Amino acid sequence: MPWNVERFKKCLKTHTAKEKASKLMESCGAEPQSASRAKKAAYVKCVMDNFDKQFPHDVRAKVMEECGRKCISTSTIEKAKKIKNSSKNLEELIEGLNKSHIGGHLRLEGNKIHASYDRCYCGAVKQTKEKFSPTYCNCSRGWYLELFEQALGKPVKVDLLESIVQGAKTCRFIIHMREK
Fold this sequence. Notes:
This protein is an alpha+beta fold. It has helices at 5-15, 18-26, 37-54, 57-71, 74-85, 90-99, 138-152, and strands at 105-109, 112-117, 156-162, 171-177. The chain has 7 helices and 4 strands, in the order H-H-H-H-H-H-E-E-H-E-E. Helix 1 packs across helix 4 (57-71) and helix 5 packs across helix 7. The two termini are 30 Å apart.
């Protein structure tokens, strides 16, 4: 599901003052409605660049994480839960998610799940040729948080290691298991 400006605004208003949120959204003008994907990506880049300048890291991470949690579809969560319920252990869950093409390429190492994508799946930014702020990829962190917390029924921690829109060849994450 591509980046959605309305979802971003709602998440932004949850974590910031209304005036600061409005100022940020006005900083790049109106979202181009019928523009090319490249122009829409340039708009999102402008918003993220200004977001980085105007807000502290913890607020930016929370906003984008929330966007990612809201981006994952209910059907994807339900599929992951069904796979979990038919799995005997974490290894079988990871195998089932890989077979169902949920979460990229997943690999279990101890109690950590290594996740990677060989291309950017975000429709809003994958057309860009410029490097994007690492802030943006907290959306993917949120997506993984929601996927694994819902499927496992317990909290996880997700670290972003690298991303394609930051110039890497892959997007890589580590999902850490936590106890309830």
